[in-house]
Design brief:
This protein starts with a strand and ends with a helix. The strands form 2 sheets. It has a 4-stranded antiparallel beta sheet, with helices on both faces. Strands 5-6 form a two-stranded antiparallel sheet. Helices cover about 40% and strands about 10% of the residues. Strand 5 and strand 6 form a beta hairpin. By secondary structure, it is α+β, with helices and mostly antiparallel strands.
């Protein structure tokens, strides 16, 4: 599972996020212009079908407190792997080892798209929770719209195009389903500003007379989404071979999320002194959980460097 927050330079049809999202809405509507055996459009937390015009109207009118030079919206993407898509399709349709979306019937395609929408809603719940704000608890507290895309196309800089195996604009083979999401910077109440591109990952700041944790850890959000997929669909990652390995993998994922969540909550409540020292120590523990061997080697290198430079004396 690859979940990404796209920077303006990587957002299709958009030079920056400080103005209108019209070009992005039009870009994401491109698949809808082709003839499909089913009807589809944008969707939201509560609605399965939303028109592009409505998306534009709602996003454009949800930033009354933002200044002209501030970001108004962001684009996110949720990109399941081939194995995850095959697993999801099997859960929904009962068909195993499906290699192409076109191998499914029209009804099955609609079912898979509907389930991807549900999963995207869960990802937006995790997105909201990852800000650690009192007023923002779930995806329903946000203003956002998603669109499921079933295809990807080769670009001019693709290796296949450079090597002559494909032409620019050709459809990529295999399962290519993914979800694009437009999310407003302001929450639904237009009182909370939320930026997933901030560099801070847990610093305390004074906001409206209260100390809050500011920032957004994009890696943590991705981990949350991966764990949510595993939980929702009883999915075993390709590198996990049995139930015991799955439980250990799941526990590591949960430990990673909980460790960062508890740290940020403690910072938010002002219970910790010397926050930077505590954060660094917690980060070291986190690295040992994720990759003990690599963390140990890095720790030894740091100790050796400190000895050579006299910092440990």
């Amino acid at each position: 599972m690859y979940c990404s927050v796209h920077r303006p330079v990587n957002t299709p049809g958009v030079s920056d996020n400080k103005g209108s999202c019209l070009q992005l809405v039009e870009y994401l509507s491109k698949e809808g212009k082709d003839v499909r055996p089913y009807f589809d459009s944008f969707f939201s937390f509560e609605q399965d079908f939303v028109s592009g015009a409505n998306v534009l109207h709602v996003i454009e009118n949800n930033h009354r407190t933002l200044k002209r030079n501030e970001d108004k919206f962001y684009m996110l993407s949720v990109n399941p792997s081939k194995n995850e898509l095959m697993h999801l399709i099997e859960k929904v349709t009962g068909k195993t080892r499906v290699q192409e979306f076109s191998d499914l019937t029209n009804h099955e395609q609609e079912q898979v798209i509907a389930e991807l929408k549900n999963y995207a809603r869960h990802c937006m719940d995790e997105y909201a929770a990852n800000f650690y704000r009192e007023k923002v608890k779930s995806g329903n507290d946000l203003v956002w719209f998603g669109r499921v895309e079933t295809e990807r196309h080769y670009k001019g800089d693709s290796e296949e195009v450079k090597n002559g195996r494909a032409k620019c604009g050709d459809k990529k083979p295999g399962l290519q389903l993914h979800v694009h999401i437009i999310v407003s910077r302001m929450d639904k109440s237009q009182t909370v500003s939320l930026s997933p591109l901030t560099k801070s990952r847990g610093n305390r700041q004074l906001l409206d007379g209260k100390e809050v944790v500011v920032g957004f850890d994009r890696s943590e959000w991705a981990e949350r989404c991966a764990t949510r997929f595993a939980d929702d669909y009883n999915y075993l990652p390709y590198y996990v071979y049995n139930k015991r390995d799955y439980e250990e993998w799941k526990q590591r994922q949960q430990m990673q999320v909980i460790a960062m969540r508890e740290l940020k909550q403690q910072l938010l409540q002002g219970e910790l002194k010397n926050e930077r020292k505590v954060f660094n120590n917690s980060l070291r523990i986190y690295r040992f959980i994720v990759n003990p061997k690599r963390a140990f080697i890095n720790e030894m290198k740091t100790i050796a460097l400190n000895v050579l430079t006299g910092k440990s004396l």
